[in-house]
Amino acid sequence: MASTAATWGSAMATILRGLSMLMVVCPIVLLSSIEAAPTISAAVARKCREMAVKTHPVHPPGTKAYAGVEREYFRDCVSKETTGNKPKQ
What we know:
- The chain is an all-alpha fold.
- The protein has helices spanning about 1-30, 40-55, 65-85.
């Protein structure tokens, strides 16, 4: 019986070593494959904000329909400015 317990203990130790290696390697592989989002400069953000406000002027209080469109315009402007394509004015 003692040899069976030793065999199970050895097998369990092998399994635990394999699992611990996976727990170390998987996060390293996942984190190394993530690309960082490009940062925007304050000048680009300011320019896009001004263009968004000009294109979609503020509406009277209580109406929020313009906010989503303005945010979308701002995101498009920033993405075009950072990739080199200029937005339409």
